[in-house]
Amino acid sequence: MKIKEVEKRVGIKSANIRYYEKVGLLNPGRNTNNGYRDYSEEDILQLERIKTLRLINIPTDDIKLLFEGGITMESTMNKRLEELDQSEKDIKEQREVCIHILKNKLALDQLEPSILEKHEDVWDERLKEVQKNDIDKHLLVKGCALMFGIAALLACAINANRYMIGMDPATIWILPKVGIFFFGYAFVLLMIESKKDLPFLYIGRSGSHWKAPGLGILSNSFSFAGLAIGLISSSILQFVLAYLISCAVICSVRTAFTYKHLYAK
User: Fold this and answer.
1) CA dist 193 → 62, 123, 139, 224, 255 (Å)
2) How far apart are CA 60 and CA 48, in angstroms?
3) CA 184 from chain center: how many Å?
C-alpha cells in the first residue's frame, strides 16, 4: 500500500513515517513496477508499535535497540519509569514552592533563594534545564544572515566599480589585504564574544561596549567577517567559499563555547 493509505490507517504523518525509515525503524519494500515504497501489513504493525512507544516518550534510539534486540522491553520500561519518577519529584518540588508562595502571600519583591533550599539537587538539575532553554537559539542564523547581507552588498558594490567603471589597480591590490585584516579582527571579536557568551542582541548593541559609538550592529564578528568576505571576493566562487568557511568557523566556535558555558560545573 502507498504511504498516504498508511498515514490514514496509523494516524502518523508521512513526514514522520519517512523519518522512521531514515533512522532505521522501518524498512518497507519497493514496488518492482515503479520503485515506489510498498508498505505491508507488517509495516503497519511496526508503525503501531513505534507510535505506542513514542507516545510514552521512548526515544527513537531506544526503540531501534529494542527492535534489534540490543535492549529488553523490561529494561526500557524500567528506565522510563525512573525518568517519570524524577519528573514527578521535580513537579512535586515546584508545586510545594508555588503553594508556599500562595500560602504566605509573597509579593514579587519578597521572593528569595531561601525558598528553594529544600532538595537543592532537584533545583540544580532544574537550573541546568533552564539554562539550556533560556538562550537565543537563533543567534547563529541571525548572525550568518547579517554576514551574508553585508558581504553581498559590499562585493556587488566593489565588483560593479571594478568591471563597469574601472578601479585604480592600487585600490584593487589593497582590498584583499584589508579584507584579511578584517578577518583577523573578526576572529578576535569572535573569541571575546564566545568567552563572554554574548547573545546576538547584546552584540548588536556593542558599539558602546567596544568603544566604537555609532557602529552598533556593525561592530561584531559576523559583520566584520561580512566586510572581509566582500573585500576579498572577486568572483562568485570566492564569495561562496569564503562565506561557507566563515560560517563554519564562527558557528563551530560559538557552539563549542556555548556548550562549555552550559555544561560547566
Assistant:
1) 38, 29, 12, 13, 12
2) 14
3) 26
Long-range contact pairs involving 185-190 (C-beta distance under 8 Å, separation at least 24): 185/224, 186/221, 186/222, 186/224, 186/225, 186/228, 186/246, 186/250, 187/221, 187/249, 189/219, 189/220, 189/221, 189/224, 190/221, 190/249, 190/250, 190/253, 190/254
Contact predicate 220/206, CB 8 Å: yes
The list of the chain residues with pLDDT below 50 reads 201-216, 265
Q: What is the pTM of this model?
A: 0.50
State the Cα–Cα distance between residues 47 and 125, nearest whole angstrom.
Answer: 34
Q: What are 158-173's pLDDT values in tens digits?
A: 877 766 556 566 566 7
Cβ atoms 206, 130 nearer than 8 A? no
